């Protein structure tokens, strides 16, 4: 079955270093869902400047909960009921589309790429940008489902291991935005440093300048119990997520040092 891709739109097509571009739903959704924060940009008519907020969110499908990352998914964003973005989303219509237009992005750093000259330095990274229209979720069943989805995106199974479901006050004070995605793109860099031919032929520079990649990843430390914690041991689901997550991110960072297959990724 062919891999689904987002359509290339003028606002979503990668122009510079476009050999690094990806439009695969699976790739883009994977980057978004692996990031602890999603940067959400919107325009408020009361301000001369676009607003950008770091938010917590996750891609999923209420209609098809078993859908995988390569399927068509919505982005669910979690926020306070009376925040500026939530208020705008309740009343916004744009060009016939229902909801407020949003641009959303996420980036994962995999390494520092150190070259012979400052101009050739880079990062190994995975970034994604999505464009869509957001409306508040009003159906209570979908809202509860989305709250569980977002909570478990922070720590898997955390929702089931807390007092749940949310009480009435919590439901009233929390809003969930559902973003229907119109387009998206990803940009990925992996591999070693690459320098200009002139610098590569400069033996003096090459003799004194270390070049290579410093892999980088998010590392979770040992959990520290809260002052009113009464659970003697760190729960197994939490420790498993921490240990396995650390190892997975470490593996990905070192994997990114390898040169990409020609024609697959830019450098």
UniProtKB/TrEMBL annotation:
<feature type="region of interest" description="Disordered">
    <location>
        <begin position="244"/>
        <end position="267"/>
    </location>
</feature>
<dbReference type="InterPro" id="IPR024747">
    <property type="entry name" value="Pyridox_Oxase-rel"/>
</dbReference>
<dbReference type="Pfam" id="PF12900">
    <property type="entry name" value="Pyridox_ox_2"/>
</dbReference>
<dbReference type="InterPro" id="IPR012349">
    <property type="entry name" value="Split_barrel_FMN-bd"/>
</dbReference>
<protein>
    <recommendedName>
        <fullName>Flavin-nucleotide-binding protein</fullName>
    </recommendedName>
</protein>
